[in-house]
Amino acid sequence: TVHQQRAELTALLADLPGRIVVFVDDIDRLSQQEIRDLFRLVRLTGSFPNVVYVLCFDRKVVETALTDGAVSGSAYLEKIVKVSMDVPPLPAQALSPVVTGGLAEALDGINIGPIDASRWPDILIQIVLPMFATIRDVKRYLASVPLTARSLGAEVSLVDVLALEALRIRYPAAHDLLSPAAASSPEPSSTGNPAR
């Protein structure tokens, strides 16, 4: 029976000289149903001796996925997760050299023209860096920049390309609103007053 199999497995695992550590990363990137299935599996197997799960996830996303009617995702997690450690976001000063060095490498050899040195420091500090909280965010950005820069060439200022690409990667819904908004904006007239 299932109970006999569980008892046998428990006895075998108890005799292990060490522990089995199972790492599961990017849980918050799963679908709602996959998150629920994963935590059911952890709940069913987490009590085996010498088996430890290390689960990495965005708490808000997972709690939302686990919330079901009267059962809150937060309460569900408390029953399963024994020790919780919050990873603080990286400070901007730690991400800055990663972004600037990564951009230099990513854009090397692409015919895009020079970067506007008078605008770039402000754009980097006030717009680009605040959009990133993790190295994973930065890596996604650096992977996408060369393709966008190649496709636009020198048609658009490189500083604008870098700022808009950060917005597209981190907040795609907001980025998608830009084109319709630009198309519906009034053109300035020759007198400087908005055209009607």
Structure description:
This protein is mostly helical. The protein has 10 helices and 2 strands; from the N terminus they run αβαβαααααααα. It has helices spanning 2-14, 32-45, 59-66, 73-80, 92-107, 120-128, 135-152, 158-170, 172-176, 178-184, and strands at 20-24, 51-55. α3 (59-66) crosses α4 and α5 (92-107) packs parallel to α7 (135-152). It has a two-stranded parallel ribbon with strand order 1-2. The chain is elongated and about 70 Å long.
Order of strands, main sheet, comes to: 1-2
The biggest beta sheet reads:
2 strands, parallel
Runs in which pLDDT lies below 50 for 5 or more consecutive residues are 190-196
Fraction of residues in helix: 55-70%
- Overall mean confidence score, pLDDT: 86
Short note summarizing the structure:
With 196 residues, this protein is mainly alpha-helical.
Entry keywords:
about 200 residues, two-stranded parallel sheet, about 55% helix, disordered C terminus
Task: Compile the SSE list and pairings.
Layout: H1 2-14, E1 20-24, H2 32-45, E2 51-55, H3 59-66, H4 73-80, H5 92-107, H6 120-128, H7 135-152, H8 158-170, H9 172-176, H10 178-184
Parallel strand pairs: 1-2
Helix pairs in contact: 3-4, 5-7, 6-8, 7-8
